[in-house]
């Protein structure tokens, strides 16, 4: 404890004696935080923030909250593949160690996602303990362009943020314009199953279901109420009888096709069980960050093949080059989209 206290005092002395704080920033929690004039090192509190900082300013990212897998690393820029892993400050199972946070010497800590009193309290606590400015950013999907611009300005990379925000605005406008022409009876009933058994899903209002809602589909689990992630029974899913099943786990997607217990579900009978792409970050959720932008193009192609023009594979190449700064080969596309589309696609 004495060692930690002394480390914190040194960090506080260093920060406040440099006169580095030069501008106030009002975050999504209504907190006014003094931000250094030049932010060069950023520590992220959770996965959505990691993705956001990576796509905006990879050179400022101090590390990951979870070490990327070998499969994920091949779709990340070489400069970030082997950054240190610090753990997460937020969410269930927070693992970050305060001494490690201070030792990383960040100019700023960023958290992106839901903002409520719990997260405000955590931000205040960490900032008080470490002396490091800690800001909360609204991570709602529809606000993606504004989020990109706000954080881009915060990190001193406004031109790049503007480029990415324009892409996001175009993506959302194309989606909204296309959905406006679709009658309600053309919107499929969809079940999203998480885990190897596929019996965890998101209720109405769940951040994990945001892009399904944005894509205009009917989340059948909304019938179970409003909230976040929840476990459901097979009997419930059978009763909802979805037209399409989206699986977070390839294991579940494979099993449900041959499991007699699922055979009566319309999605299974019609062969409409698909795996949500997940590299290098989830296209549907996991994490619920700006990585979901390319998931919109996938859902447009999958759910409304007759209503949205475009070439998904070309769009994937463009997105990965612009956001993740990596080139995608034909073989990479096969890997990324395995099980995600009808076999004819």
Give a nutshell description of this structure.
The chain has helices spanning 2-17, 47-56, 70-73, 98-103, 117-130, 144-155, 158-180, 210-214, 234-240, 250-258, 266-269, 293-303, 312-324, 330-336; strands at 21-26, 32-36, 42-44, 108-113, 134-138, 189-193, 200-202, 218-219, 229-231, 244-247, 273-275.
Task: Describe it.
The chain has 345 residues and is α/β, with parallel strands linked by helices. The protein has 14 helices and 11 strands. It has helices at 2-17, 47-56, 70-73, 98-103, 117-130, 144-155, 158-180, 210-214, 234-240, 250-258, 266-269, 293-303, 312-324, 330-336; strands at 21-26, 32-36, 42-44, 108-113, 134-138, 189-193, 200-202, 218-219, 229-231, 244-247, 273-275. Helix 5 (117-130) links the parallel strand 4 (108-113) and strand 5. The longest helix is centred in the middle third of the chain and has 23 residues, at 158-180.
Roughly how many Å is the radius of gyration? Answer: 21 Å
**What strand order characterises the main sheet?**
8-6-10-11
Number of strands: 11
Residue ranges: pLDDT <50 for 5 or more in a row?
A: 1-19
Helix % is 40-55%
